[in-house]
Amino acid sequence: MARVVDLRSDTVTQPTEAMREAMATAVVGDDGYGEDPTVAALEARFATLTAKEAALFVPSGVMGNQIALRVLCAPGDVILTGAHQHVVGFEMGAAARNAGVQFWTVDDAAGVFDPTEVAEALAAEDDHQVAVRALAVENTHMYAGGVPWSSPVLAELAAQVGERPIHLDGARLFNAAVATGEGAAALCAPATTVMACLSKGLCAPVGSMLAGPASLIERARVERKRLGGALRQAGVLAAAGIVALDTMVERLADDHRRARHLAEAFARALPEADYDPATCRTNVVSFDHPEARRIVADLGEVGVLGGTVGPRRARFVTHHDVDDDGLERAVAAVARLRG
Ligand SMILES: *Cc1c(COP(=O)(O)O)cnc(C)c1O
Questions:
Q1: Do 153 and 207 reside in the same domain of the chain?
Q2: 292 and 207 together in one domain
Q3: Atom 5 in ligand 1: which residue has the minimum CA distance?
Q4: Could you report the per-residue pLDDT of 6-58, keeping only the tens digit for each?
Q5: pTM of the model
Q6: Atom of ligand 1 nearest to the CA of 200
Q7: Residue 34, number of CB atoms within 10 A of its CB
């Protein structure tokens, strides 16, 4: 069998040579005492990129989201989200366990929210229902197929929700920035807190960032410790994160171009899926098909790995470690699929 083309996720990448070099030579200290200069540099860098007062290095995106819920909400609070967001369906019920919050979900099949549904949720307290305390938005929206929210759409939502805080789950924030041509800071402006992963398309081996107002990030530091996520000489990891932010963002455009090419191949091979490849604007190819599991298995047999994110929803994700040659092998395998 030819070399495997691993499109299961953009988390499967190897750290680059530059990252390994930076990790080997990183100046480190005990971050529990605030003495790791490399962690401090990474946090400052991310805060600048997102135009927030402060940032915190966390071990994973899930932990970043969970900490945000804990600092923005109290147990029993309702947070409005899209029905298919990561924080709702893909974090093992962590929000209930760690933050005690309840979700009010709106339709997000197209990635963004329907303003009418949002308005109804916000008005619910007039009908003796629980008040919406905060919102969580995902940019890019993974399940919907890596759909980016542009800043005008985010600004419209922010205007609608008034004073309520917005948490931006930006696991793939930089994919959104590249796809929309907007800076990360513009995309983060309507949000109170923002989480972004260094370990996805940006190729760092470990870690995510949480940014927001200094007072909230101070509390986030305490919550990180409560969750067991405080680290010591974490500069060895932060060093790779700095390389990720400094050198791995622009190239995401290559992943987006390849994903669109793959999306077109699926649309041609599986017309019954009614998949519009133009909806693929970043690095996630995701579509409904009654036999999604069988399609993933058939491709797996010939060394093209993907996955399902729902019973009828297939997902393939492009990243740094799949080049044009690998992508062409995937496209050829898709062309041989039976529908
Ligand atoms: C991957 C992902 C996360 C969680 O990140 P981990 O580092 O895997 O914990 C959160 N939100 C979204 C949208 C993701 O895709």
A1: yes
A2: no
A3: 61
A4: 999 999 999 999 999 999 999 999 999 999 999 999 999 999 999 999 999 99
A5: 0.97
A6: 1
A7: 11
